[in-house]
Amino acid sequence: MSETFFPQDWKRTHFCGEPRKELIGQEVILNGWVAQRRDLGKLVFLVLRDKTGKSQLVVDTSKNKRLDELTKGIRHEYVLAIKGRVRARPADQVNTEVATGEIEIEAEDIAVLNTCDVLPFPITDKSDATESLRLQYRYLDMRRDVIRENILARGKLVRLLREEMHKAGFEDIETPFLYKSTPEGAREFLVPSRINPGYFYALPQSPQLFKQILMIAGFDRYYQIVKCFRDEDLRADRQPEFTQLDCEMSFVDQEDVLTIFTDIVKRTVNTFFTRDVIGEIPRMTYQQAMDTYGVDKPDTRFGLKLVDLSKLVKDSEFKVFTEAVEKKGIVNALRVQGQGETFSRKRIEDLETAIRPYGAKGLAFAKVKSGQGKESWQSSLTKFLSDELINIINKTTEAKPGDLLLFCAGPYQTVKAGLGALRNALGKELHLYDTRELNFLWVTDFPLLEKGDDGRFIAMHHPFTCPNEEDLALLETDPENVRAKAYDLVCNGVELGGGSIRIHLERIQEKIFSLLGLTKEEAEKKFGFLLKALKFGAPPHGGIAFGVDRFAMLLTGCEAIRDIIPFPKTQKQACLMTGSPAPTSEKALRELYISVLKEEVEKAGISKHA
Amino acid sequence: MSETFFPQDWKRTHFCGEPRKELIGQEVILNGWVAQRRDLGKLVFLVLRDKTGKSQLVVDTSKNKRLDELTKGIRHEYVLAIKGRVRARPADQVNTEVATGEIEIEAEDIAVLNTCDVLPFPITDKSDATESLRLQYRYLDMRRDVIRENILARGKLVRLLREEMHKAGFEDIETPFLYKSTPEGAREFLVPSRINPGYFYALPQSPQLFKQILMIAGFDRYYQIVKCFRDEDLRADRQPEFTQLDCEMSFVDQEDVLTIFTDIVKRTVNTFFTRDVIGEIPRMTYQQAMDTYGVDKPDTRFGLKLVDLSKLVKDSEFKVFTEAVEKKGIVNALRVQGQGETFSRKRIEDLETAIRPYGAKGLAFAKVKSGQGKESWQSSLTKFLSDELINIINKTTEAKPGDLLLFCAGPYQTVKAGLGALRNALGKELHLYDTRELNFLWVTDFPLLEKGDDGRFIAMHHPFTCPNEEDLALLETDPENVRAKAYDLVCNGVELGGGSIRIHLERIQEKIFSLLGLTKEEAEKKFGFLLKALKFGAPPHGGIAFGVDRFAMLLTGCEAIRDIIPFPKTQKQACLMTGSPAPTSEKALRELYISVLKEEVEKAGISKHA
Fold first, then answer.
1. Which of B174, B217, B565 is closest, CB to CB, to A174?
2. Strand, helix or coil at A214?
3. pLDDT of B61-92, one tens digit each?
């Protein structure tokens, strides 16, 4: 080899995962990495790997002195080109777990294309290397089958989605990354402009307004698989840049969007698995989801529904219940099947601790026994509730002897949020579902607005969401109860996508901006170009966006976004492999008309990538 | 209609471009924009447009008082839903230029889905609106057939490229946008990090190092259609963000890359036009291209080649020629066919002015007549050149009576650059080629290095380009003459793509960094992670990147990038529609630990979007 980097006569005839019995007797050339090396003295076994799989090479060191010498120097992850003849493995050495396990390749010649230093961790499916070491050597980490397969599966998903979008008549159109910064700039990454001193671009959180403009321009159906940016505070599994399948259509109402995307999602998933994994996607209103599951993205793989007892218990002797209802709150129960005996007092206290962050004050509980009335409960509540009421509660919750009943009382939002989170935790802990199952669900009829901490309205979806026509009059009288034409696609308790019909009438858009507390001047400054465009023939339109990384995680069963993308950043938004972000020079900054606030940086402490 | 935004019974049954004679007698519903309106009193004609085309609607105002009233209020670009019956047009009104020109639709009902203000410019194929007005109202500009078709054609090209890449086994893998800033930061857009105070990301100029890392990770074949960013000084027709088809492959040499991408480009172009537009793609070395065409991206649609006369004229009496050759320069000629009589002295002086920017000092010329020797030239050169030499020059340049000969003498680079530019200008001016023709060409064997203005070496392609094995020894003795395994795809004089085999051996990469004048410390700081990765089993690899916008321009015959993308920025990197970039608040900047250098901004002058 010497300085001939990759001579054409060493080009592979097959991928490492390809050779089968049919090739026995033929000469093959493979290119790949040394995944395993076993030295039996006279025989050396090398397993060569590429992205398709592995083949076993046998070097008979007694036959060829040059190969013997060469093989001695070969270590794990060396890059080799090998020539050899395919032969059947001895019957006792057949490996049925590998596709190439019936054959092996008798080495005739080997070329070392590159060497490899001592590995920082072994390249194995299960790795006990720390995450930070793995990310630092991401190119080695990605040689692990499990990571490579995830990343390739994500690519396959993207390709299937594109095919479906194309078939459905969506045009692939790119929108800009250097977008307008807004005065607040909250959660935006800013980019200083060199050509326009003192001015800034922002990296878009989504192409929302561009896609609406494309509808106004007449493109009818648009899609894009596009990076979006959000500068969020440190959160476990969030990336500052993420990928969205972004879609928009004209001359549609909510029903059209749901129908078309039910189809697209169904076909994509079923093609991905080459079998019918999902059929129709059921629908549920936001209100139903909150009432029954306590969250707006319910995991419908299991029951454990929230049961409303407010009306039943409002006249009981238990003050916690009666006061909650008097204050327009609610009393809800969870029936945990068959766990009456298994849950200790301590464990129930842990559950209580778990719901506190949601504002819920506590849990009452009853262990259900056989018998009627008070006799059927082991609970401190028996002091306050009548036999009759207990019987009714048992009936309403469908409680059977051996079950555990958990009760929570308080304001609607806190009870629902607390029990909703508890339900998810119990579902996981008690293995109430098959983890391989995919349970899709449309959630519809979200409220248009919600009250922020300061009592002001904020848009629940975004400020361009169309209110339900039936509720238009409520915009004046009772804005909080206006439903939006907004919808989410949920799978296994994960929000996979969300969208809405947009406002296409300028006067309604202005009305919403004013409800959101934007003055005319603010609205003009932030969204003036949209308001203007709405005056020039905007068609009715709506759309949806899906989280591609999350979608891929669901299909592959990955538990972390870091395992589905090739170059993830840490929680501190750092790339450990390249050492990004990094300091830059005064000169580079001066050219951009900015400087670093050194004192503030010092106060914040020296940045440590972690 | 009132507040029902888009009732389901007004959903289109057909697109506006679809109705044909086969539908005569049937009721259709169309949704679209009013492209034309003609009021003949009793009859009103409305032409309705969507992205597929146009249909003519006839409103018989005498039949329906409500429609009469409604139609009176309808203006250009109103958004309508119409119901009506398809009928044949009267024979004298058939329009053969429109696909729907044999029919018209007798209006039965009309719903106004939205109105439109007075247009800033009419929506017509040829527009005399200023570019800045068109960009400000880009949504109206994009309703023009010509712009919409360009943008859709670009989308089609992207889809075909993806299909070809998939068929050839390339995996679609995304790389990060928030990349590491380098200390110089030249031509990079920087992004301040909030979580890492005082640190910066850079938006990548290309995913070069990520794709090399993906090869080292074992992905074998990678592609991505990806935005790249370059903060260039004001240049006509350059965008700060542009799209690249970015590709990389392992276990290949140059020949493999050229073969595979010849195939991919051929199939993409021929499928785009649904006919065989290109066959084999010819190849030419960099040296041949420079010698013959004076540029490294020759427009091979026409001849007008540069003819080298250096050896012939080196002993002549004409000092300009002899001195040029003595100083190791050259004398070249262009034979402009049949233009001996048409080019005035003034026009030739203009040509001289055109080549001055390239450093060329002047042009000598001869108008070729019939006869032999001096008799055959009308030229001031006849004083200096012998009959014999003139005859030889005529023969060498293939000059015929009526031709114009242009001569240029000086250093190689300036003569080639000057005459190369002149050749392109003359080719266009004299219509020497069919503008619809597509002439692809591979240019190979580029030099690895070139001398910068400061006499230091710079990489001609990029610092990761592999030198030709045969020239490795020259790295020590004569680096300037080392050829690179680098190649460009050129079409009609435009560089459509470029790539190289990369260095996969760490010691060679270090050698190149040192030739480029990088100290060990600098190399480590900028590219340390690459050098490290090369130590862990990097396979031989190489790739290529294509300019998607340019590719689309060539296929559509567009002359400006602004006509092929939906939201272009001006030369000053501004988006006139959204008003981007924009100022931001002190508070937002403080959160990013930066501030604007106000004095510097004032010195630079207030930014004006233009």
1. B565
2. helix
3. 988 888 999 999 999 999 999 999 999 999 99
Chain A hits for B592, Cβ within 8 Å: 190
Higher pLDDT, B319 or A236: B319
A contacts of B607 (beta carbons < 8 Å)? 193, 196-199
**A566 interface with B at CB cutoff 8 Å:** yes
Do A483 and A373 share a structural domain?
no
How many CB pairs (< 8 A) connect A and B?
A: 431
User: Is B116 within 8 Å of A535 when comparing Cβ atoms?
Assistant: yes
Which pLDDT belongs to residue A1?
Answer: 40
- The predicted-structure confidence for B332-352, as pLDDT tens digits, reads as follows 999 999 999 898 889 999 999
Q: What is the pLDDT of residue A527?
A: 92
- A348 and chain B in contact, CB less than 8 A: no
Q: Please, is A380 exposed, middle or buried when counting C-beta atoms within 10 Å of its C-beta (0-12, 13-18, 19+)? A: exposed
**Residue B7 DSSP symbol:** -
> Is A533 at the interface with chain B, CB within 8 A?
yes
What single-letter DSSP state applies at residue A121? Answer: S
Last residue of a domain, one of A564, A582, A597: A564
Quick one: tokens of A212? 């609406």
How many domains does the structure of chain A reveal? 3
**pLDDT of B417:** 96
Last residue of a domain, one of B99, B114, B129: B114
For residue B410, the 8-state DSSP code is E
Q: Do A115 and B537 touch (CB under 8 A)?
A: yes
The answer to whether residue A88 neighbours chain B at the CB level (below 8 Å) is no
CATH code of residue A42: 2.40.50.140
The predicted structure's pLDDT at residue B270: 97
pLDDT surpassing 60 at residue B1: no
Q: What is the CATH number of the domain that holds A394?
A: 3.30.1360.30
CA distances, B22 to each of A358, B15, B26, B107 (Å): 64, 15, 9, 18
The total number of residues written for chain A in this structure:
610
Q: Which of B80, B106, B76, B101 is nearest to B21 (CA)?
A: B101
Choose, out of B152, B190, B209, B474, the residue to mutate when testing the contact with A (most A CBs < 10 Å).
Answer: B190
Q: Which residues in chain A land under pLDDT 50?
A: 1-3, 607-610
Give the N- to C-terminal CA distance of chain B in Å, as an integer. Answer: 42
Nearest chain A residue to B1 by CA distance is A469
* Euclidean distance between CA atoms B497 and B545, whole angstroms: 5
Residue A454 is assigned to a structural domain of this protein: yes
Domain assignment present for residue B493? The answer is yes
Q: Is the pLDDT at B507 greater than 60, yes or no?
A: yes
B462 and B357 assigned to the same domain: no
Q: What is the ipTM of this complex?
A: 0.95
Tens digit of each residue's pLDDT (9 = 90 or more) over B484-506? 999 999 999 999 999 999 999 99
What confidence tens digit (pLDDT) does each residue in A467-508 have?
999 999 999 999 999 999 999 999 999 999 999 999 999 999
Identify the residue among B18, B157, B181, B195 best suited for mutation to test binding to A, counting A beta carbons within 10 A and taking the highest: B195
**Domain limits for position B207:** 148-241+440-564
- Average pLDDT over chain B reads 94
Report chain A residues whose CB lies below 8 A from the CB of B196: 572-574, 581, 607, 609
Provide the phi-psi class of B291: left if phi over 0, else alpha when psi is between -120 and 50, else beta: alpha
Burial class (CB in 10 A: 0-12, 13-18, 19+), B77: buried
Chain A residue with minimum CA distance to B167:
A159
Which of B179, B190, B209 shows the shortest C-beta gap to A592? B190
Please identify among residues 130-189 of chain A the ones whose CB lies closer than 8 Å to any CB of chain B: 137-140, 142-143, 148, 151-152, 155, 158-159, 162, 166, 171-186, 188-189
Q: Are residues B418 and B359 in the same domain?
A: yes
CB distance from B409 to chain A under 8 Å? Answer: no
